[in-house]
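Contributing new records

If you add data, match the layout below exactly. Sequence lines come first and carry their own label; structure lines follow with theirs. Keep one chain per record. Anything else will be rejected by the validation script.
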Amino acid sequence: MRNIALFDLDHTLLPIDSDYEWGQFLARTGAVDANVFARRNAEFFAQYQAGTLDPVEYLEFALGTLAQFPSHQLDAMHQQFMHEVIHPALLPAARDLLQQHQDQQDLIAIITATNRFVTAPIAKALGVEHLIAAEPELDSHGKITGKLLGIPTSGQGKVTHLHQWLASQGKQLSDFPQSYFYSDSQNDIPLLSIVSHPVATNPNNKLRAHAEQLGWPIIHLFDAQ
């Protein structure tokens, strides 16, 4: 059987945080009150970096912002966001790493704490079919309500969502001879700890220290970019 390769997105395959940059984009383009939103977005980002973020509080703040707009306007804004922010951040080193696993016919998935609205077009641009992300609740017309569906895809929640996704395909992690997970953050230690090949990727200081202690590989994708 082929192996499985899992990837965090922000600061792992991207040198930026797509969720934070989406908020900055909304503020910059005048879609939201720039001063109020940028300040709140920065507060949440600082909490994330410190490992103190309440994921449900943040996600429902972000999804509540999305709920203010009709779907066609959201789609148009996201196209502009991809063009201005994301495409310039899709760097060769990340594509090369994905290609290594694609060449080996591995099952590949991005698993991210960021919501599906923001990340689905990014996964598609990276050529990754499978995406496990925070799911926005939709109303009967397919419009985002502002509420989170299920539990966040962060911390231990990534482990839960991974097991659920694999089960939906009639698989479990132990079915794969080798399992890889690439991440930059100590928030992903729960999932890094259950794969056979954890890789600290562009790690922050807390994850770097943890990886060094356990002898995990450490790679830096963007240093030479």
